[in-house]
C-alpha cells in the first residue's frame, strides 16, 4: 500500500514538474533530463511511468478529460439526459482550459500530436457511444467516430480563438461551440436552447 502511494506521488510530481517547465519554457525546449532533475528522480524512474515526453503530455490531456467527466457526473448525478451530459462535459473542459491560459496552450499543442489527437477522438467516441446508444440507436460505430472527429475540429478551433482572439473570444465562445456539437449529435428539435441554458446554469461560477 505504501509502495503504491509512493509510486502515485512520484508520477504526480513528474506531471506537475513537467507542466511547470512546459509552461515556463515551452514543450519543445523542455528535455527529459530537465524534468528528472527538477523532480529529483532518476531517468529510469520517469520511464517507469512514461514512454517519452509526448506520453507525459498525453497524461496531462487525460487529466483534463477525466476531471471534466468527473465534475459532470458529480453535478448531474442520476440525470441520464445524454445531450445535457455532453454539453456540460464540454463546457467544463472549456472552463478549465480558459481559466488557465498556459494550460490551454498545452491543450492546443496536444492536437498537433498524432497519437494524442487519435486518443482524444477514440476516448470521445467510446464515452459518447456509451451515453447515446439508447437515444441514437441508428448511429453506427463508424458514424460515432466521424461525429467525434468533427467535434475535435470544432473544439480545437474555438479554444484557439478563445485564447488568442480577444475580440471574439471569451466565455460566450463556449456556447457557440456547444450549439454546433449538440446539432452534430442530433439533439431533438426544440431542445437546443433549453440544454444550453441549463448547461450555463450548472457551470460552477
State the low-pLDDT regions, or none.
none
H and E order:
HHHHHHHHHH
Q: Briefly note the CATH topology name of the largest domain.
A: Tetracycline Repressor, domain 2
In round numbers, the mean pLDDT is 88
How many helical elements? 10
Structural class: mainly alpha
Apparent shape: elongated
Most strands sheet: none
Offer a few descriptive terms.
205 residues; mainly alpha; Arc Repressor Mutant, subunit A; Tetracycline Repressor, domain 2; 2 domains; 0% strand; elongated
Question: TL;DR?
Answer:
Helices cover 77% and strands 0% of the residues. It has helices spanning 2-25, 32-39, 43-49, 53-76, 82-98, 101-111, 114-132, 141-164, 172-184, 192-202.
Amino acid at each position: 500500500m505504501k509502495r503504491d502511494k509512493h509510486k502515485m506521488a512520484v508520477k504526480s510530481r513528474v506531471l506537475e514538474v513537467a507542466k511547470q517547465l512546459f509552461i515556463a519554457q515551452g514543450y519543445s525546449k523542455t528535455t527529459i533530463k530537465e524534468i528528472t532533475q527538477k523532480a529529483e528522480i532518476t531517468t529510469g524512474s520517469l520511464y517507469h511511468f512514461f514512454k517519452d515526453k509526448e506520453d507525459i503530455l498525453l497524461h496531462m490531456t487525460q487529466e483534463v478529460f477525466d476531471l471534466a467527466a468527473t465534475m459532470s457526473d458529480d453535478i448531474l448525478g442520476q440525470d441520464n439526459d445524454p445531450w445535457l451530459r455532453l454539453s456540460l462535459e464540454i463546457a467544463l473542459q472549456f472552463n478549465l482550459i480558459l481559466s488557465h491560459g498556459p494550460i490551454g496552450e498545452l491543450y492546443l499543442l496536444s492536437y498537433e500530436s498524432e497519437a494524442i489527437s487519435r486518443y482524444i477522438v477514440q476516448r470521445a467516441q467510446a464515452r459518447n457511444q456509451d451515453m447515446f446508444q439508447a437515444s441514437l440507436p441508428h448511429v453506427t460505430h463508424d458514424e460515432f467516430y466521424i461525429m467525434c472527429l468533427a467535434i475535435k475540429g470544432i473544439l480545437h478551433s474555438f479554444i484557439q480563438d478563445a485564447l488568442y482572439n480577444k475580440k471574439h473570444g471569451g466565455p460566450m465562445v463556449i456556447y457557440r461551440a456547444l450549439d454546433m456539437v449538440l446539432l452534430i449529435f442530433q439533439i431533438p428539435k426544440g431542445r437546443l436552447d433549453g440544454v444550453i441554458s441549463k448547461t450555463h446554469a450548472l457551470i460552477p461560477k
